TrEMBL record:
A Pfam family annotated for this UniProt entry: Sulfotransfer_3
Database matches in InterPro entries: P-loop_NTPase, TPR-like_helical_dom_sf, TPST-like
Keyword set includes Glycoprotein: no
Domain of life: Bacteria
Species annotation: Ponticaulis profundi
Keywords assigned: Transferase
Name of the featured protein: Tetratricopeptide repeat-containing sulfotransferase family protein
Length: 477
C-alpha cells in the first residue's frame, strides 16, 4: 500500500478513536522507511498521539538517517531517546551536534537538560548559564537554572528587567526563576508575586477542564465497579518483567520512591512511560461507555492476555533483561484498575503527600507541559481531592495490590518505610545508608530534587505561604 493511502487510514482511525489501528499503520509505514520528506513529522505526531513512544523513537531514527545534516532531526532523536529512559544517548547526540555549532544557546540548553537527567547538576547549571549568556531572555534556561539551586542575587536585576518588558519567550521561565530566588531569600511576598505571574501566563495558554477531569475519574470508578472484584484467571504468565507502578500526583514524591525501588537488585526504573495507555487502548478511555463497547462487563469478552503481551513486550525491550521494572506517571491513577486486570502480578505503590505541599511545590515548579491543574489553587485543591478519592477507591477494592506510602513518613523514617514497601513488593531489602542516587537517570522535572540524602526539608513548606494556599484548601489536611 502506498504511503498516501496509509496516511489516510491513520487520519481516519484517529478521528474514530481507533488507536490500535493507528499504531499498526504507523509501525508498518515506519518499517518500510519510505522517502516521505515532511511526512515523517506528521507520522511522529500520530505515533505520539497514540502514546507509542517506541514507534516515535524508530521514526526519529529514520528521520535522522534520511536527513543526517539536519540538526532539528538530531534534537528530535535525542528527545525520543530521553523519553524511553536513555538520556545518556541523548546527551551524546547533543554533544556531537555542538561540535558543529558551539555557540548555539539551544544546544547549550539541551546539553544541560540531559546532563541534569543524569545527575550532573554542576555541569547542567554551567550549560544553562552559557545559554543565558548567549540569549539573555531564554526563559526555559532561567527556569532550569533555578531548579538546580544555582541562581543568585546577581541574577535579580536581569530577571526583573525581563518581566518588566513582558517578553513572551522569557515567560513564564523567568518568573519561575525570580520566584525561586526570592524564596531563597525568605522574601515570600515577592516570591509569590513572581510565581503568580508565571502561573497566570501558563493558565492563559493552556486550558484546563477541571470538571471534565473529575467526571472522568468518577466514570472510570463506576466502570470498574460494574466489572466486580474478580480478576481474569491466569492461564499462563506472559513472558516479561514484573511491573511495579508508582502512583501519585505530580510533586508527591513519586520520583524519589521510584529511585528507591529501582535501587534494588534486578530492578530497572522506566520513569514516566505511556505503556499503560498503549497496552489498554482496546478498552478506550476506560469509562463505562468504552468498557461496555469493549465487552468488559461480559465474562470472556476481553482479551486481557493480548494487552498483557503488549505491556510486557514493550517494557521488556526497555528493561534490557531486568526481571522487575518500575513505571510512574502523573496520570497512572486512571489506569490502576485496567493494569491490575491486564497484569496479574502487578503491584502499586500509592505515594500520598499533604495536598497543600503538593500544590505549593507544583505552583513554584517549571513544567514544559501537563499538570495544568497546578496553575490555579482552587483547581489544585479540587483535582488533588479527586485524585486521593480515586486512589482510595483502588486500595479499598485491591488492598493486597495497592500500598499507600505517606511521603512525610518516608521522609522522616526512610529506612523502616522502605523496608515495609519492599516487603510488600517482594523485593530484597535495601540499605539506604549505602545507596547513592546521585547518578540515577531522572528525565523529569524532579531531576535536581531527588539527589542526595532523603530529608524532611520540604515537608510543610506550604506554611510559609499559608495566607495564599490555606483558603483554597479550607485549612484542612
Amino acid at each position: 500500500m502506498a504511503a498516501p493511502d496509509i496516511f489516510t487510514i491513520i487520519r481516519n482511525a484517529r478521528q474514530q478513536g481507533q488507536y490500535e489501528m493507528v499504531i499498526d499503520a504507523v509501525r508498518r509505514l515506519t518499517a518500510s522507511k519510505p522517502n516521505i520528506g515532511k511526512g515523517w513529522e506528521e507520522l511522529l505526531n500520530h505515533a505520539l498521539a497514540a502514546a507509542d513512544e517506541d514507534a516515535g523513537l524508530e521514526i526519529a531514527k529514520v528521520m535522522q538517517e534520511q536527513n543526517p545534516r539536519d540538526p532539528k532531526c538530531v534534537l528530535i532523536l535525542a528527545e525520543r531517546f530521553s523519553r524511553v529512559g536513555k538520556s545518556e544517548i541523548a546527551l551524546m547526540l547533543v554533544e556531537r551536534l555542538k561540535k558543529s555549532a558551539p555557540a548555539n544557546p539551544a544546544l547549550d540548553y539541551f546539553h544541560g537538560v540531559y546532563s541534569g537527567h543524569l545527575g550532573k547538576l554542576d555541569e547542567a547549571a554551567e550549560l544553562f548559564r552559557a545559554a543565558i549568556r548567549r540569549k539573555p531572555d531564554f526563559g526555559d534556561a532561567w527556569a532550569l537554572l533555578a531548579s538546580t539551586n544555582r541562581i543568585n542575587q546577581d541574577d535579580k536585576a536581569a530577571l526583573q528587567a525581563l518581566l518588566e518588558k513582558n517578553t513572551p519567550h522569557a515567560l513564564p521561565g523567568a518568573a519561575y526563576a525570580l520566584g525561586s530566588l526570592m524564596h531563597q531569600k525568605g522574601k515570600h511576598e515577592q516570591a509569590w508575586q513572581a510565581w503568580s505571574m508565571a502561573n497566570a501566563f501558563d493558565r492563559k495558554r493552556r486550558n484546563f477542564n477541571l470538571q471534565g477531569e473529575l467526571n472522568a475519574m468518577k466514570d472510570i470508578q463506576a466502570a470498574f465497579d460494574r466489572m466486580g472484584d474478580e480478576l481474569p484467571a491466569v492461564q499462563q504468565r506472559v513472558q516479561g518483567p514484573r511491573p511495579v507502578f508508582i502512583v501519585g500526583a505530580a510533586r508527591s514524591g513519586t520520583s524519589l520512591t521510584e529511585q528507591i525501588v529501582a535501587a534494588t537488585a534486578g530492578t530497572r526504573a522506566l520513569g514516566e512511560t505511556m505503556l499503560s495507555r498503549i497496552a489498554s487502548w482496546p478498552l478506550g478511555n476506560l469509562g463505562q461507555g468504552d468498557m461496555q463497547k469493549a465487552g468488559a462487563f461480559e465474562p470472556g469478552k476481553v482479551e486481557w492476555a493480548r494487552m498483557e503481551k503488549v505491556f510486557r513486550g514493550l517494557s521488556g525491550m526497555r528493561s534490557e533483561g531486568a526481571p522487575v521494572v518500575t513505571d510512574k506517571g502523573a496520570i497512572l491513577h486512571l489506569f490502576v484498575g485496567a493494569m491490575a486486570h491486564i497484569l496479574p502480578d502487578a503491584r502499586f505503590i500509592w505515594v500520598r503527600r499533604d495536598p497543600r505541599d503538593i500544590a505549593f511545590s507544583a505552583w513554584r515548579a517549571y513544567f514544559a507541559d501537563g499538570n495544568r491543574w497546578r496553575n490555579d489553587l482552587s483547581d489544585s485543591a479540587a483535582y488533588l481531592k479527586g485524585h486521593v478519592e480515586m486512589m482510595q477507591f483502588w486500595q479499598d477494592r485491591m488492598p493486597d495490590r495497592v500500598m499507600r506510602v505517606d511521603y512525610e513518613t518516608l521522609a522522616s523514617e526512610p529506612q523502616s518505610t522502605t523496608d515495609d514497601m519492599l516487603g510488600f513488593l517482594d523485593l530484597p531489602r535495601l540499605d539506604l545508608s549505602r545507596t547513592n542516587f546521585e547518578r540515577s537517570n531522572v528525565p523529569t522535572a524532579s531531576f535536581a530534587q531527588i539527589r542526595g540524602k532523603i530529608s524532611t526539608q520540604s515537608v510543610g513548606g506550604w506554611k510559609a505561604y499559608e495566607k495564599w494556599i490555606g483558603p483554597a484548601f479550607g485549612h484542612e489536611g
